[in-house]
Amino acid sequence: MVGPNRPQIVLFGSSIVQFSFADEGWGSILADLYARRADILVRGYGGWTSRNALQVLEQVFPKDAAVQPALVIVYFGGNDSILQVQNGLSPQVPVPEYIENMRKIATHLKSLSEKTRAIFLSPPPVNEDLIRNFLGSLGLRRTNESCRKYSEACLKLCEEMGFKAVDLWTALQQKDDWSTACLTDGVHLSPEGSRIVAKEILRTLKEADWEPSLYWKSIPAEFVGLSPLDPEASEAFQRNLQWETN
């Protein structure tokens, strides 16, 4: 392992996670902010559902690992919500099973260590017209109404279990032109959509009463001041984070 030891932040989920470093994605935004503070690790698997996640949960997050993550950001639900079709090829996971799968994921993460925290992202909305144009039959039967049901199920479970959650279904739709501005193909996030996701994650981290805080400004940067050119050593140094607060 490359040292020194930093807090580990793991992004775990389906394609919304796998692609989070592409096209000005939310993962890359977090990685930029947490540079010299924490390591962002991506464990994203396109096309996966919560059912698939359970198959590898203990391999991705072994209980006997020497170092446990400080934070896990979890996203599953978009693929779970795809409506069943006659040929039976849909990966749909019924809502009751989805809830239990997410409960098992949350319980496992909680068992890793007393310091391991988790934030769950609820399924974002989809643009059904764009899905038909871009994905055709590969889009199967994705509807915004189905995403809403899975989003509400995720949020309700997190409230019940005391986990932090980000309501992406609502957050993205606060923007008037969300259906085209926030999504590329009707499902995956555009740079604008990713900025909203990153903003909501950062807001959640800033407001959390966790000790120690995992908000990026609360984590000391490494090796500050060894170089006279180090911007971190300057009191005047400020990152341009206008999008984070507006």
Automatic annotation (TrEMBL):
Gene3D superfamilies: SGNH hydrolase (3.40.50.1110)
InterPro entries listed in its UniProt record: Iah1-like, SGNH_hydro, SGNH_hydro_sf
Top-level division of the source organism's lineage: Eukaryota
Cross-referenced SUPFAM superfamilies: SGNH hydrolase
Single GO biological process annotation from the record: lipid catabolic process
GO molecular function: hydrolase activity
Pfam family, any one: Lipase_GDSL_2
Domain SGNH hydrolase-type esterase: from-to ranges: 11-196
Protein name listed in UniProt: SGNH hydrolase-type esterase domain-containing protein
Organism: Erythroxylum novogranatense
